[in-house]
Design goal:
Layout lengths: L8 E2 L6 E11 L9 E10 L2 E8 L5 H4 L3 H7 L1 E5 L3 E7 L6 E7 L8 E3 L4 H11 L1 E4 L6 E5 H11 L1
Antiparallel strand pairs: 1-2, 2-3, 2-8, 3-4, 4-5, 6-7, 6-10, 7-8, 9-10
């Protein structure tokens, strides 16, 4: 098994399999840099579906220590299927921190996920192993998620 935070391992939860985990992924619910909330980003696969989860840590920073359980549950993202994700925007600035913005099929977007210790390339490589990602013709930093086409291609390939 790899000794990094992006490992493939079995999960006891509902027969799901972890295909990617990344610790120290943060969101910033306000403009203040001190108000960041850090957590773990996970990709799990169950049957032929890929899911994304982000769970904030409990009390790792002063902002997290001030979060009530109710507030923590507001920011928690539990098992969003990639079939419900329209696109992912990748930001890898020359100066500053890498982050991604996940946009749902409904048009709503999650707060940006900041990957302070890298991992954007590994995240996208893992996603591409399980769903079809198409680079947008209008913006090279936007990847269109097309879970339905990937499933149909797998059926046709058999």
């Amino acid at each position: 098994m790899l000794q990094s935070d992006s490992t493939k391992q079995s999960s006891p939860r509902d027969g799901a399999e972890f295909v990617f985990t990344k610790d120290n992924v943060a969101i910033h619910p306000t403009q203040s840099a001190s108000e960041r909330i850090t957590g773990r980003l996970e990709l799990t696969k169950q049957s032929s579906s890929l899911f994304m989860t982000w769970i904030p840590y409990k009390g790792h920073s002063s902002a997290e220590a001030r979060l009530s359980d109710n507030e923590r549950s507001i920011y928690t993202i539990r098992a969003v299927p990639f079939a419900d994700i329209r696109s992912i925007r990748r930001h890898t600035p020359a100066l500053g921190w890498q982050y991604i913005v996940v946009v749902l099929s409904s048009g709503l977007a999650f707060l940006p996920f900041y990957l302070y210790s890298g991992g954007v390339k590994e995240l996208f490589a893992t996603i591409k192993q399980h769903v079809l990602l198409l680079r947008s013709e209008e913006d090279v930093n936007v990847y269109i998620v097309n879970d339905d086409i990937q499933n149909k291609l797998q059926v046709w390939a058999v």
